[in-house]
Amino acid sequence: MSSFEEAETEETVTCLHMTFYHPCQEDKMVFRCLNFCKREQVRADEMAKFGRDSSICHYNLMDTRVSRIQFSLQFYRKLNSSEFCFEIKNMSKKTKLIVDQTELGYLNKIDLPWKCIICFGDYQILAEIQEGESMDYFETYLHLAEVPILQERCLPSLQPTPENGISASSFPSQGKSPIEIDENES
Prior knowledge:
Residues 161-186 are annotated as: Disordered. The chain has helices at residues 3-6, 25-28, and strands at residues 15-21, 39-43, 47-51, 59-60, 71-77, 84-90, 97-99, 102-104, 109-111, 115-120, 123-130, 137-144. By secondary structure, it is mainly β.
């Protein structure tokens, strides 16, 4: 047998790709402490924490509007399965965390979908999980987006559309405003 045949099988590693966007990145450099385009190993028994407190969080966001710990990610294996997942938990008492369309309040947590968008404040993060086999650690691979991940043109209109399909905003109001009348007045 050759040494190639005797070599141990190389284990693949789960990798969490995260693409970050903030509209003021160029001016404020809120991501200046993140290591972009470099894979980093995180032990499976550690929680990946994102926030502004560098003594607690490995992934620092340099913004006073970000909580000391904004959110955490926990790597785990599903019960009776070989599938590895991440659980995301909102650690901010002040800011809601939105994962795709799910809003998380303080200490709420959900499984991170395989591909999703995480939002809080002006921050947008595209998270994509690349499957692996290693149980000892996972990797993070951070990227910086130049343009918003969520494009405004893709967002649904916040204006309700009446059943007849004609929006009141389609017609000028002609200077009229609603008038409140007491029911006893004639």
